Amino acid sequence: MLRAVKVRIYPNKEQRVQLNKTLGAYRFVYNYMLDLKQKEYKESKKDLSRFDLNSVLTKLRKDENCLWLSEVNISVLRQSIRQMLVAYKNFFKEHRGFPKFKSRNNVQTALFPINSISKKNTFERKTITLTKNLEDIRFRCSEEFYSRLKKYKDGLKGATLTKSKSNKYYLSILIEIDDSEINLLPHTKKDVGIDLGVKDFVITSDGEFFENKNFLTKKEKLLKKLNRQLSKKKNGSNNKNKQHLKIAKLHDKIANKKDYYVHEVVNKLLSNYDNVYMEDLNVKGMLRNHKLAKAISEVGFYKFRNLLETKAAENAKNVGFIDRFYPSSKTCHNCGYIKNDLTLNIRKWTCPECGMEHNRDVNAAINILKEGSRLAMEGVTVEKVTKKKAATTKKKTVKKTDDSTTKEAVTVVSEVSA
Ligand SMILES: [Zn+2]
User: Is residue 30's pLDDT more than 50?
Assistant: First the structure.
């Protein structure tokens, strides 16, 4: 099974220059080839293949205006073409939105395919060699990841280089490891319904609450202060750049904390339950409501849902969705009475029919469990909103393209790196 080991790398000055060159060339080739493919198709209806584009690349590397491209490993640049073609194909096949040009202002990534990574890595010292001019780069990671790297040094399948906005470098190294070594989460024969909320992040049908930790809100004052300072600095000045970096670092920190928490909640749920049912929330619709928007985007529902599904699949567990129009909050789970006048601000209510007292969210979670189990028994699967949406709203899904192709090429199975 393929697993990703994420390490932070600490390049020295020369290596940093080379890494930046690689990222720049990767982006350049991606954009150049995407543009070329579009143009050729418009002008002559010719659909350039990977083979065609590879030979364009070979010529480019000999062009005196592009000599810098020849300083970057050719397999890596060919991988850029391959990645672009995957994004391009997905656009037609899955209506995922037209491939976006890579911008230097986003997180930078480059994929090192298997044949571009040195076979001499032993990892005895904490260094990794990628291509010829990227040798012995120092790295750090958890002990678990480190021992995995040493054990499977001959099973490296590729690596994704990432440079964050705050100029940190990471490598996500793909490794083929024995299935027997993967400890699957135990099967518990227990199911759960979960309701997602803003005050509490996740509420379970067993009455467990995972609070929304408001990582962003907690740092909001500091962010505002940093931004105020930023606006006073001169454009293009060194101080302004430094301030930008400071802000980017804080954003990184908040994102990491959030990530870690989402992992924690997902791990807890999947350790305790085999089947998890949830509403197929239309997060985009909810985001249009400004009051809710900030809270929701802060909570990271998308991330949570994606991770839950990925991890469940890895552990032979299941996530089931129920229709988002199912009145899970309004229905008394005990007798089925529907309380139509239940407004958002009512957190507790008593069923006029059977007299049962309800916590709004727990009651909803129990109904989600009931409905989810019923659908599962009948073999009904709710078609996911994201897929339906993706087919109709091109503009909104564009953002995803970049990301999803990386995921596809890498099949990354994320794990919390401690
Ligand atoms: Zn009732």
Answer: yes
Residue with tokens 């309800």: 358
- 370 Cα: distance to centroid of ligand 1 (angstroms): 15
DSSP 353-414: TT--EEEHHHHHHHHHHHHHHHHHHHT--PPPHHHHHHHH-HHHHHHHHHHHHHHHHHT---
For the chain, give the percent of residues with pLDDT over 70.
85
Q: How many residues does the chain have?
A: 418
Cα–ligand 1 centroid distance for 351 (angstroms): 5
Distance between CA 80 and CA 104 in Å, rounded? 15
Buried b / exposed e over 316-354, threshold 16 CB at 10 Å, is: ebbbbbbebebebbbbbbeeeeebeebeeeeeebebeee
105 vs 318, more confident: 318
User: What pLDDT band is residue 295 in, cutting at 50, 70 and 90?
Assistant: low
pLDDT tens digits for range 122-173:
999 999 999 988 999 999 998 888 988 999 998 899 999 999 888 899 999 9
What's phi and psi for 193, nearest 5 deg?
-110, 140
The pLDDT value recorded for residue 303 is 83
- Residue 26's closest CA among 375, 294, 409? 409
C-alpha 373 to ligand 1 mean position (Å): 20
How many whole angstroms from 360 Cα to the centroid of ligand 1?
A: 13
pLDDT range class, residue 391, cuts 50, 70, 90: very low
User: Which two structure tokens, joined as six digits, stand for 203?
Assistant: 């509420």
Place of tokens 């089931």: 320
**Ligand 1 centroid from CA 193, angstroms:** 19
3-state class of 334 per DSSP?
A: coil
Q: How far is the CA of 355 from the centre of ligand 1 (A)?
A: 6
> What is the distance in A from the centroid of ligand 1 to the CA of 371?
16
Q: State pLDDT tens for residues 404-418.
A: 333 333 322 232 232
Q: What is the rounded distance in angstroms from the CA atom of residue 396 to the CA atom of residue 389?
A: 9
Residues 84/38, Cβ–Cβ less than 8 Å = no
Q: How many angstroms does the Cα of residue 325 sit away from the middle of ligand 1?
A: 20
